[in-house]
Amino acid sequence: MPTKINYNQELNTEQLEVVSEANGPCLVLAGAGSGKTRTIVYRVAYLIENGVDPQNILLLTFTNKAAKEMTMRAAQLVGQDLSKIWGGTFHSIANRILRRYARKLGFESNFSILDAEDSKSLIKLCLKDISTPPGSRPPSAKVAGAIISFARNSDKEIEEVIRDRWPHLEEWIPLIEGVASKYSDRKKKANAMDFDDLLLELRRLLIENEDVGQRLAGNFQHVLVDEYQDTNTVQAQIVDLLSSVHKNLLLVGDDCQSIYSFRAADIENIRRFNQTYPKSKIYKLETNYRSSPEILDLANDVIVSNSNQFEKVLRAHKPSAELPSVAVAMSAIQEAMYITQSIQGLRNDGVAAEEIAVLFRAGSHSQSLEFELSKRGISYVFRGGVRFFERAHIKDVVSYLRIVNNYRDETAWLRTLNLLEGVGPATAIKITNMSRSFDSIGDIISANIDELLSVKARHGWLSQIEILKAIINVKSKSPSEQIQAVLKSTYRDYLQAEYPNAMDRIADLEQLAEFASAYEDLDAFLSEISLQEKFSADEDFSTEPPIVLSTIHQAKGLEWDTVFIMNMSDGSFPIRMAVEEGMLEEERRLFYVAATRAKRQLCISYPTQSKHGNMPQSPSQFITDLRIRVFEEQRLDYSGRPISINNISTQSLSNLNDSSDGGGLSYLPAIEEL
DNA sequence: CGCGGAGACCTTTTT
DNA sequence: GGTCTCCGCG
Predict the structure, then answer these.
(1) Which nucleotide across the nucleic acid strands is nearest to A550, CA versus C1'?
(2) Which residue has the higher pLDDT, A470 or A546?
């Protein structure tokens, strides 16, 4: 068959094998920067060129954006519209399927989806419902929620999970079990699913309704899964079930890059692959096209300390470049000045802003840098902060819509009622419970419940009704117009009274209305936004694409010419809590992921003083563990400018642990002397 | 029951 | 620095 694509020319031998031969169950161990995405894109294109119908392909990815981009690239290759491909995260695919079959599982098809914050607030209510012995503090809603979620995603009992991972909470096992059961009841009553339910209910659907399972699996001739190292037990089972008819399963992953075990991702899914599918093929992509040999040397030096990895050697393809550098700053401020100036230098040398990123372990680590960048007028985007759909005003308005879409939605009721003056937690619960006894949103609105409320609360309740009515009265039923209706209601007054930046918030909401205009149906709109990781209107090229500041987790799968990894001091990275939980190897993989994002230049830095107090800080053990020849130390002058570094590294960072002051390089002059 | 003030507490990573 | 909790007043 004549094809448009010349596969031989555009792929290397390793990739070509996968693209043209990977039928049946296959595992592709794809090292960092080995053209993994490219291989999947060409595989999809190859399938299409060989007559597979797009709607028979399932492409499971880590973000919805990734699926969209891969599909677009494949569509360009074959010159066809591929929008019928089933592509997206496990959660969004599950949502699509469950909307259709919700009734078989005891849910209505307009079920609400609870995001992490919604779940937490519901769990908090459940915790309050259970009395605890006086004097002792029960675990917080956050911790309880994490335990419950982990147990569900790993298919384990709560008791086992606590004994395993949270042994100090053993005395609370019965309490957390109680919370889990109450939480589950509440969600059922509210016709709501949280993120975990989407996966678990899909699995239940596939197992309990054999005809549905067979029909779905029969549809998916080819199942491709990216980032397989970060799937959990339930997701792995879903993959097995959905590919059970045709058995054309292509799993792509890198066990060195498994960084999501905190949400029950199980590296064993990859390792067990041989046993699950004895007649399978394993491919390896070991040529690295991304990074310089120097960067790869450092990355390999990091990962050798981990036991328990698949054997895999990354071969560099790029020419030699500079050694990675490690800059030692006196303070967080000096570190920020160093990075800012280096960025300006790179920009002057002609490196594009979108080719530069600064990565860090935790969202809060970038504060001093953000301050310094804005001071110098360098624009940046911060990935990993409060997402668009998690901003308070967005969630408020979405909650009004959620009530109209699913009047049983407890979380949405409580959230909106608590905004009203004169209505506190107790009245909010009273009204929410009352609303459950009606059969429709219309009945609730026309009900007379004055005798339940204080005079002040009555007034609040009236304005709540007004807002809901405004939404219902939109004749077109278009979600966009419904949002605009809320914007014209008393909610606008509330925003203006409450926030100095009300205008910004209103602008956000207008943007939300704009985004919603792509949807005709409220239910579709609501489920989509709770699963959307980012607001997609940010592909706005009107301004220059700015420098990226990102947590390492969010940098997964991305690459830049120059990557800074900042705040690599003891306790920050590896982060103390993770070390205490025995997750050192995963932290090391996280460092590996960060380092392998860089194409040409890798700049690591850390401050020798803690942010607030004057506590001295040592470098991260990941730095002191490195062999000296894989990096170059960098001294900084008082303003954070690197001093030329010829022949100063006679004292190695590796010896730091022996020095008694524990506070960085002793030959650095104190800041006062400069 | 709602609300505001004062003080304690902690602060990972995310679909 | 932000969130949570407790307390006392209206």
Answers:
(1) B13
(2) A470
CA of A34 to C1' of B14 (A): 25
Segment A616-653, tens digit of pLDDT: 788 889 999 888 888 888 887 777 787 765 434 444 44
**Is residue A459's beta carbon less than 7 angstroms from any atom in nucleic acid strand B?**
no
Q: How far apart are CA A458 and CA A35, in angstroms?
A: 62
Report whether A205 contacts A26 (CB < 8 A): no
Q: Which residue has the tokens 């031998």?
A: A13
Q: What does the alpha-carbon distance between residue A451 and residue A183 come to, in Å, rounded to a whole number?
A: 30
Query: Which nucleotide does the CA of A263 lie closest to, via C1'?
Result: B14
Are A94 and A198 within 8 A, CB to CB? yes
Q: Is the CB of A553 within 7 Å of strand B?
A: yes
Find the angle CA(A501)-CA(A505)-CA(A508) to the nearest 5 degrees: 145
**Secondary structure element (H or E) that encloses residue A117, with its range:** helix A116-129
Which burial class, exposed, middle or buried, applies to A544 when counting CB atoms under 10 A from its CB (0-12, 13-18, 19+)?
exposed
Helices (H), A34-115: 36-49, 64-78, 90-101
Q: Which nucleotide is nearest to A261 (CA to C1')?
A: B13
Among the ranges given (A80-84, A197-201, A315-319, A588-592), the one the predictor scored with the smallest mean pLDDT: A315-319
State the pLDDT at residue A570. Answer: 86
pLDDT of residue A670: 36
| Of the candidate ranges A334-348, A508-522, A623-637, A659-673, the one whose mean pLDDT is the lowest | A659-673
CA of A383: nearest nucleotide by C1' is: B14
Q: How confident is the model at residue A505 (pLDDT cuts 50, 70, 90)?
A: confident
For the cut 80, the answer to whether the pLDDT of residue A1 exceeds it is no
A62 touches strand B (CB under 7 A): yes
CA A383 – C1' B9 distance (Å)? 27
Distances (CA, A) of A507 to A365, A490, A497, A581: 29, 16, 16, 43
Angstrom distance, A656 CA to B8 C1': 37
Residue A149 and residue A196 in contact, taking contact as beta carbons nearer than 8 Å: yes
Which nt is closest to the CA of A61, judged by C1'? B15
Between CA A44 and CA A77 the distance in angstroms is: 10
Q: How do residues A128-182 score in pLDDT, each as one tens digit?
A: 888 776 667 788 888 899 999 999 999 999 999 999 888 888 888 988 999 999 9
Answer for A537: CB within 7 Å of strand B: no
> Counting runs of H as helices and runs of E as strands, what totals does chain A give?
29, 18
Cβ-based contacts (< 7 Å) between A 162-221 and strand B: 195
